[in-house]
Amino acid sequence: MATNKDALFPHNEAHSLAYGDCPDCSAPLQLKHVGKSSFIACTQYPKCEYSKSLSQHDISIIKVIENSHCPDCDSELAVKKGRYGMFIGCTNFPSCHYISTKQNTQKKDEYEPVDCPSCKSGQLSKKQNRFGKFFYACNNYPKCKYVLNHEPIARTCPQCSFPIMFVKTKGERKYVCANEACAHVVDESNE
User: How many whole angstroms from its chain centre is CA 76?
Assistant: First the structure.
C-alpha cells in the first residue's frame, strides 16, 4: 500500500475530475462553502470570478392557460414551476416579468391605518413577520416602538377614553381596549 497519497491521486487532478475546468480561464474548479450555502468556483479566484450554483433553479412551463392574457404585455399566461414552487406567470418571460399574485386577482380585507396613540405623529401599519403572522406597528419605527398583535380600529374606549380598540373574534365579535391598563371589553351584540 502506498503511503504518499499525492503520488497516487494528485490534488489538482482530483479537482479537475470532480468539478471540471473553468470555462473562463481553464483552471480547475473547486467546491466552496460560505455560511450555509455551497457553490462551485474557480481556484484562481481573485483573477477569475467564475462561480456556479450547485442546485438548478430553472423555471419550467407546465401548462399554458388558454384565453388568459397578461395585463402588462397581452401574452398568454402559464402555470410554471420555479425555485419556490408553482406560480402563474407570463409566457413572454425575459421581456415581461408579470407574476399573478393574490393581491393582483382579488383585494379583500383592506386595513385602514390608525393614528399611533404613543407618538401621535405616525400611523399603525400592517406588517408581516418572518413566520407569516401579521402585526401592526408604528411607521415611525426606530423612534416609536408601539406595536399590536390584533387589528386596531379608531374607536374610543368608553371606560378610559383610549383612542384605539382592537377586534377579537372567538365565537362572538368583541372590541377590546388597546390600553393594557384598561383592557375593557365591549361586546358588539350588546350595542
Answer: 26
For residue 173, the one-letter residue type is: R
Q: What are phi and psi of 154, to 5 degrees?
A: -80, 85
Cα–Cα distance list, 56 to 27, 31, 37, 82, 98 (Å): 23, 16, 14, 10, 22
Among 111-120, 143-152, 182-191, which stretch is predicted with the lowest mean pLDDT? 182-191
d(Cα 82, Cα 56) in Å, to the nearest integer?
10
Q: What is the DSSP letter of 175?
A: E
Q: How confident is the model at residue 13 (pLDDT cuts 50, 70, 90)?
A: low
Residue pair 22/15 in contact (Cβ under 8 Å)? The answer is: no
Query: The whole model's pTM is what?
Result: 0.43
Q: Give the E-state strand segments of the chain in sequence order.
A: 29-34, 37-42, 51-53, 60-65, 77-82, 85-90, 99-100, 114-115, 123-128, 134-138, 147-148, 152-154, 164-170, 172-177, 185-187
Question: Which residue's C-alpha cell is 410554471?
Answer: 80
Rounded Cα distance between 24 and 37, Å, is 23
Give the span between the Cα atoms of 2 and 14, in whole angstroms. 17
Range 154-182 average pLDDT: 84
Strand pairing partners for 164?
A: 154
